[in-house]
Amino acid sequence: MNNEWQYHVVKGISWLVCRLPYKLILLIGASLGPLYGIIAKKQKLRGIKNIKIGMNMNDEQAEALIEKLFKNLGRSVMEILYMPNLTKKFINEHIEMRGIEYLDNAIKEDKGVIVLTGHVGNWEWMGAALASYGYPSTTIVKKQPNAQFTRFMNEYREMVGLDVFASGGNEIVSAAKALKKKKLLGFLADQDGYIHGLPVPFLGQPSSAVVGPATFAKKFDSPVVPIFASRKPEGGHIVHILPPLHYKHSGDDDVDMYTLTEECVRVTEDFIREHPDEWIWFQHRWMTKMSEIVDYDKKLEIRERAHEKQ
């Protein structure tokens, strides 16, 4: 069945949202977000469970935190619909860039830059801000189950100046070419690494970590710059640019891959704990069982060697 009508419906809603004042859409989003929490009971319970472990909270604290998360998610959804209004003037007024010197220094290395980020804050507006400030940015995105939603999101990403590559296949080759051209290559690296990931604990639970950032850093010797967004209480966002990470060529590639991957996990984990009501706690981050990871015993040995060298 042709579901192209869904794309046009969302575009129509976006058109209406863009006619509203920014402060009003934030109020609407904060009101609508918790309604999703009522409907999505499984996600809410999963999120509470993960919050209790990751933040060492009791039931009451975890429930209060996830209510804040749903409010922020509602705000972010409204902001995504509002993206056609992201002019350079609007971005300058509502998005604050902190630590820009770290990114500028990484660019001066002249090897391209890998941007490490995650599903925290409004990462879509973060990408728009980087593009607005003149940083040639590309991003690797995961295809959504709904093709019309993927079409809508990629159209808006490209509208604000991002080059978009879907994960898998020839798109990865295109992303590598972009890095060779000294562009920023963004990774949403807080997802499950599946069976080919590395066993790196994350927020109190065993997990499989994605190896994309470390893989590209090894291949191109590019710095990895962690960049995350957080929400301002009064509206708008802060883009936090943190000191770069580097692939260390010690002669033991397995250990070096693990070391950088673990560093990426830790800096992501630290930022989430600083802004716990802005990360999607109910995503399937811990879906892969450790026994399912390919060459798990070998990777455990690599982890031990990496920790011995630290």
Automatic annotation (TrEMBL):
Coiled-coil annotated spans: none
Top-level taxon: Bacteria
CDD domains hit by this protein: LPLAT_LABLAT-like
Molecular functions per Gene Ontology: acyltransferase activity
Keywords recorded for this protein, A-Z: Acyltransferase, Cell inner membrane, Cell membrane, Membrane, Transferase, Transmembrane, Transmembrane helix
Pfam families (alphabetical): Lip_A_acyltrans
Name of the protein this chain belongs to: Lipid A biosynthesis acyltransferase
Protein species of origin: Veillonella tobetsuensis
